[in-house]
Amino acid sequence: MMSSNGDYQNQKIPLSFYEENSILNNVITKVIIKMIKRLLASLCLFGMIIPTALAEVTARVDKTEIVPGETITLTITTDTNSESPDIEPFKNLFDVVGMNSSTQTVNINGQISRSRSWIMALSPKTTTSSIVIPPLNVGNEQTKPITIKFIDTPQNLSVNGQDILKIETALEQKSVYIQQQQIFTLRVYIDAPKIYKVNQLIKPTIPDLNFQFLTEQNYEKQINGIQYEVIEQKYALSALKSGSIHIPSYALTATIRDKNSLQNKTVTSNELTLEVKPRPANYPANMPFLPAKDVTLSEQWSNPSDNLLEGDSISRTITITATGLTSKQIGTLSIASITGIRSYPENPQLHDNWSQLLPIGTVIQQHVLIPTQAGKITIPEVKIPWWNTQTNKLEYATLPAKTLDVATNPALHNSNSNKASSNTNTLPTIPNIIRKVESPYLWVWQSLSAFFAVTTFIFLGLWLYSRQQPAIIKQEQPIINPKTLLDDIKRACQENDPQQARTALDNWAKQQPENLTDIMIRYTPLAEAIEELNKVLYSEASSTWKGDKLWQAIQTLPPKEQTQSSESIIPPLYPK
């Protein structure tokens, strides 16, 4: 109750008042909690939506300027676990020569981020001035287009107006003959302090030219106040056809520092044109064309050619040397057959000397010659045409003709002469014998004949006995079984393999008491079979070989003693 002066004194608040306020507080609390829950749910939902809304896909290339034939690397990156990019839009513009993917996860202070990348190596199908990589779809996102430019003019890498990387090419001569060798030079100039790394030299493909690497040297050279490191390479170049041949630019890729990043750059060289002249009209049409600075011919004989007998062998070695040509360009020398001589060529030896930059080719050919008749035999002149590239004139390298004076070989003619003399003395001997029978001194002749007959039989018996008792006991030597060697020849002949047959024949001949040339001289079938084998091995024209004839000749080869006791000691080398 209130006092007279208006102050509350000992006034009590009813219980119902507290109950009403408690219910109100509970309602307010529940409303606040519900609002907080809705706010938190909204924040969580917003947090889930933001990564999706901010998902981004990017595309970049390692270089935007290239030369024809060069590849580029395209990298596509997304920060979501998306499907692979759709590359159909650029398949008509590029060949995909390689592709791989990778996934990266990064955790920074509890914040986890993920990304996925696709890396593709692309080779352009066109060489127009520029080509555009179109937008590519990656899930619901799309990349931006990228323009690639082709470098079609010589281009150096410059910084502040100064070249820090450049490449140049040069020809020793701008006009040459077909197959003529000349020097091609490639130089790379590098301002080393400003170049991070030199990567790759890209060479053009030129099917009508043949390049042979010669030398590489490094040196320093100052140009316009800049000290360059120079890499110089030299090549021997020869054209395979006549006409105008275009030599495209060479390209060089390098990595440079650009502020705080590294960039790949490409520089290109100058282009060249080579005029190739055909073989001159006055050059012999049926001879190989040899454009060179010098061509020489020389020969050597194994023994003096003025002391030969029928059936003797002599080796002739011919050497061809050409300055400015390789040994393969020279080719082999074709020697015509010579009447009265059998010729057996050996495999030619090829040598190249590059010490003087231009090649010095050498071809060495050896022939084994066997005269088959007595008298004077003329070896004809050897003449090789070649084109002097310094005077632009046709010249000839020659070996003069040579005459061999072949004497009669008595061993080849004794048999025939003995047989003829015995036939001519048969008839006149008969009357002489009759007259001697009528002589009173017949008993003397009979006594001497009997004496010599007895002594002959005695010496013959002693000789046979001594043959059974060797005077010196020799140590046993390893026995070489000739059957194994014959089996090798037989197998090669049955398989019609000329190379194996020649190898087996040489091994067999080493085990014989006489050399292969002597065997061929005394047995014509073997000589003819070996001549056919050599023609197949050393002839430029391809042909097949049958080994039946060689194996038949080996089987029917008579022993040396049997041949010496026959009516004809050595059969003629050229049977009619």
UniProtKB/TrEMBL annotation:
Pfam entry (one): BatD
Matches recorded under InterPro entries: BatD, DUF7939
Taxonomic superkingdom: Bacteria
Claim: Transmembrane helix is one of the keywords in the record: yes
TM segment ranges: 442-465
Keyword rRNA processing set for record: no
DUF7939 domain location: 483-559
Alphabetically ordered keywords of this record: Membrane, Transmembrane, Transmembrane helix
PANTHER family tied to this protein: PROTEIN BATD, PROTEIN BATD-RELATED
Name assigned to this protein: Protein BatD
Organism of provenance: Entomomonas moraniae
